[in-house]
Amino acid sequence: MENVHRGAGVSLWRQIADLLRGEVLSGRWPADTALPSESALSERFGVNRHTLRRALAALAAEGLVRSDQGRGTFVTSERLAYPISRRTRFSEIVSRQARAPGGRLIASRIEPAPVWLADHLELAQGAPLIALETLSVADGVPISTARSWFSAERFPDLVAVYAETGSITRALARHGVEDYVRLWTKVRARPAEGTENEKLALPRGATVLVTESLNVEPDGTPLHLSLTSFAAERMEIVIEAGDI
After folding, report:
1. Per residue, what are the HEC states of 83-119?
2. Which residue has the higher pLDDT, 78 or 90?
3. What is the DSSP annotation of 5-54?
4. pLDDT value at position 242?
5. Start and end of every HTH gntR-type domain (predicted)?
6. Among residues of the chain, what percentage have pLDDT more than 70?
7. Second-level CATH architecture of 12-75
């Protein structure tokens, strides 16, 4: 039995949690790697699985590990701090935290604007919209998947430019938009649904943070509306005081 002592005045599960916590924080188990199986850890510490699971549950409550049903227990990545402000740019946010941003085009299509989108974008009902489906990553790890809508008449080459650059900011700049700001953002949490688990590489039952946001030019002209699903276990939303 490794470094676990009965009768030491500290419960066995807490001793195991302390040992594993130290190993995770020291880097022995890098982010997104699997811990040894429950049977292997039980044998290592000379305890039953109930005791071991209590230790793992304590680490999960601290956010150090996550349990993926049918796959095992994994070390969690350091969460990405994602500020919501008047100037929210995914690439800038990720780069400031010494991680490599990336954007991937999943799908695109032209569709008529329904009433709710036409109202937000100040377009006529039925006006052609580009519907863009994207995946954003940090160091290759999926962070969010989004659906965004743009005027097809104003931004005719947006899909091609985004596919080339992986950046909505650059795609808008190619169409003469020098800057834009966030007019409003709504945030809610829900279980991942549809293909979100697959796109974001999440286990069943995982939670996503969903934002609905409208970006406009500095003069208030609407540019695009986005519905974005973030992997809640990999990021945290920060509301910047200067924007309250």
Report:
1. EECCCCCHHHHHHHCCCCEEEEEEEEEEEECCHHHHH
2. 90
3. -TTSSS-HHHHHHHHHHHHHHHTSS-TTPBPPPHHHHHHHHT--HHHHHH
4. 60
5. 10-78
6. 95
7. Orthogonal Bundle (1.10)
Residue keyed to tokens 């962070």: 143
Q: pLDDT value at position 191? A: 93
What is the identity of the amino acid at 95?
S
State how far the alpha carbon of 155 is from the alpha carbons of 110, 128, 159, in Å.
12, 11, 9
pLDDT category of residue 244 using cuts at 50, 70 and 90 = very low
Q: Are the beta carbons of 102 and 166 closer than 8 angstroms?
A: yes
- Compute the distance between CA of residue 135 and CA of residue 137 in angstroms, rounded to an integer: 7
List the beta bridge partners of residue 103.
Answer: 136
Q: Which fold has domain 80-243?
A: Chorismate lyase (3.40.1410)
Tokens standing for residue 86: 């008047």
Taking the C-alpha atoms of residue 90 and residue 113, their distance in angstroms, rounded to an integer, is: 26
The per-residue pLDDT for range 15-45, each reduced to its tens digit, is 898 889 888 878 888 877 889 999 999 999 8
Predicted pLDDT at 199: 93
